[in-house]
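Please complete every field before forwarding. Incomplete forms are returned to the sender.

SECTION A: IDENTIFIERS
Entry label: holo-284
Bound molecule: adenosine-5'-triphosphate
Molecule representation: SMILES string

SECTION B: INPUTS
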Amino acid sequence: MSDASPAVAVDGLVMRYGDKVAVDGLSLVVERATITAVLGPNGAGKTTTLETCEGYRRPQTGAVRVLGLDPVRDRRELLPRIGVMLQGGGAWSGVRAMEMLDHVARLHAHPLDTGELAERLGLGECGKTPYRRLSGGQQQRLGLAMALVGRPEIVFVDEPTAGMDPQARRTTWELLRELREDGVTVVLTTHYLDEAEQLADQVHIIDRGRLIASGTPEELTRGSSATVRLVVDQELPGATEAALRAAIDRWSADHHIGVRSISFGSRTLEDVFLELTGRDIEHG
Ligand SMILES: Nc1ncnc2c1ncn2[C@@H]1O[C@H](COP(=O)(O)OP(=O)(O)OP(=O)(O)O)[C@@H](O)[C@H]1O
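SECTION C: PREDICTED COMPLEX
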């Protein structure tokens, strides 16, 4: 393995379930020590792509490399170096939260301190609770702890904050940022546009198995040269907003420039997705 190899390289990946094409010629590269968000509506092919990177599915067409290795052929070598947080748990229903985390820790050569990790993720209080009795957010946090306990070089997290309350979401974001500071590569899937905007260095937008846009959140939301975006450092009171509108109206009339619309509030990745697909991301 060469150290210069990217964290993840997906090249022309095609994945089908029967007649259904789930991933349709997808290529993307994830650089090391970055947070990359794979964004798209339900059924876009995000989980299938991640599972192929994790070595759970063999590419039908195309190739996938993780840390320069083939996730299927080089599975034994790769497995200790990656962390995986699956959508929907990955623990037995009767196992207690800390038992599960300690069990996973014992599978690794140099695990993190499980008590500290559990405390950090707010699992301290429910350590003795059986998995099936944990709330959705607690199950998510346990899944994240299981993915991180082995000190992975790259962590794949599928919808990391689905079902979490705002506080747990912020803690998770902080933790993922700290991982990046420590040189860990984070690849996450999300439906939440604000999550991608807040967290990701690089965003890949996937729709119907195809990559439709890639870039930093800033690049993706910047807009075309015909779009003027004014960013002010405080919320505008209604009267100021009205005065600004009037001033723009006067200025545009003086300069014979037609202003198609004036909107207050920023362009978001949601706007980008809508422009590219004509559909809203939540409803696919
Ligand atoms: N095991 C399977 N058998 C048949 N079809 C499947 C299977 N898994 C996924 N699919 C289909 O493949 C497509 C891509 O699914 P995938 O789970 O990869 O998308 P996703 O973007 O992760 O969606 P979500 O956000 O809902 O998790 C969907 O149309 C889905 O219905």
